[in-house]
Amino acid sequence: MKNLFNKFQETMVSATFAEAGEWNTAKEMAPAHELSGKTTWLDRIFMAITFAEYGLHDQALGLLKPAPVRNRGFNAALADDLGLRGIRLMYGTVSI
User: What is the pLDDT of residues 59-71, one digit of tens each?
Assistant: First the structure.
């Protein structure tokens, strides 16, 4: 656990130097990283954030591969989102 904390601390220090424009110092402070060739879900999230910050929203969404939005219906939304399971709800509209 200490090794993970040290890597996190070195990464944050390196990021601080990079934000200040001290690129060489940031590279020296950055922890060693082994390249695996695969991107993790966390890598994809941070890359998507970077693209979105620069206004490249389509590329950001392409990295995240969001699930398609589907209409679940009003009762399903009450049950899932509000935790109102087992409640029967009748609703309608009245025109005058």
Answer: 888 888 766 666 5
